[in-house]
């Protein structure tokens, strides 16, 4: 039987169940994403901004949209509305 040679696997541990492990990881990531989305939305609203589309310049953040301008918090791209 194949045994992984990583130091994290102790000999007494049962073999990992990849699907169950991935399911738990995806659930945790989805929950964290929801919490972060709610937090960012609240911060934006508090500052009089709304969340726009994904930044087309860097694709690393959503743009933030105010009354007169749209900007990217990651790369600094900005344009008037
Ligand atoms: Zn950007």
What features would you describe in this structure?
The chain is an alpha+beta fold and 81 residues long. The protein has one domain. The protein has one helix and four strands, in the order H-E-E-E-E. It has one helix spanning 18-46, and strands at residues 50-54, 62-65, 69-71, 78-80. Strands 1-2-3-4 form a four-stranded antiparallel beta sheet, with helices on one face. The mean pLDDT is 89. Residues 55, 57-58, 60-61, 72, 74-75, 77 line the site of zinc ion.
Helix and strand pattern: HEEEE
The N- and C-terminal alpha carbons lie at a distance of 63 Å
| Counted beta strands | 4
Count of structural domains: 1
Largest sheet: 4 strands, antiparallel
Which band does the percent of strand residues land in? 15-25%
**Mean pLDDT, nearest integer?**
89
The helical percent reads 25-40%
- Principal-axes shape call: elongated
Side-by-side strand order of the widest sheet: 1-2-3-4
For the structure shown, list the relevant keywords.
19% strand, 81 residues, four-stranded antiparallel β-sheet, alpha+beta, 36% helix, 4 strands, binds zinc ion
List the helices and strands and how they pair.
Elements: H1 18-46, E1 50-54, E2 62-65, E3 69-71, E4 78-80
Antiparallel strand pairs: 1-2, 2-3, 3-4
Bound molecules: zinc ion.
The site of zinc ion has 9 residues, from loops.
Kindly summarize this structure in a few lines.
By secondary structure, the protein is α+β, with helices and mostly antiparallel strands. It has one helix at residues 18-46, and strands spanning 50-54, 62-65, 69-71, 78-80.
